[in-house]
């Protein structure tokens, strides 16, 4: 497969979104400088200063080392795979896909790069950026989930339609979206590749933020496999349930302190305060291992 061949089997696919049936063999197209008469669909050389980044870009982080390596390659070989842009006005362009190549070309000192010029509205921009990145750049699971949520919120797609656009079934789409319901600390670990999608799926099935945070900490501390996590989840789910009495609402200051303590101990700390200012701090634990972890944090 050459660098310019399109991938297929992506649901509607990138080709359908681009609507470029007149360009079935892009490697055979000529590369021309951009003029007012340039036809949409051709490959042209575009000034880097005339290109702005895609506001719908789902990727938020770029590996600087990898960018430098790509820039070194571009210095020697040139940019082999064109970026894709849409024309806005006055020969200005907006990236649809290829921001990593765009950034690396800047680092390599290029002034122009080859580009496919397409016509796309904002919905197509978001869809194409998402599909291109999922297929080529391996977005982390949280970036995928956030992009899926944007397509639902901003484009108005249902989960079935979204699945068709990106070539995934509804269950897969649902699993990604459910990641956004996990506590921020767990989402950060998924984003930073500290835990896998398999770990995350096991955590999603756990009832209660305190239990989710406990298991999450166990994964990090003990480098638990997905199978071990699933076993731990089953054990916790079958543990006897205890009634938690309702408590009187605490003030904003106490609520912040309660949240800060919860973050420190990776569990839902409860602060009880009476009218006369007396009270107690309750730090729940779900197992002997969890208790030992908390005691270590207390330097006990």
From TrEMBL:
It comes from the Bacteria. Residues 16-39 are annotated as: Disordered. SUPFAM superfamilies: KorB DNA-binding domain-like, ParB/Sulfiredoxin. Residues 44-134 form the ParB-like N-terminal domain. Keywords: Chromosome partition, DNA-binding. SMART domains: ParB. GO terms for molecular function: DNA binding. Residues 24-39 have a biased composition (Polar residues). GO terms for biological process: chromosome segregation; positive regulation of sporulation resulting in formation of a cellular spore. Pfam families: HTH_ParB (PF17762), ParB_C (PF23552), ParB_N (PF02195). CDD domains: SPO0J_N. GO terms for cellular component: chromosome. This is ParB/RepB/Spo0J family partition protein.
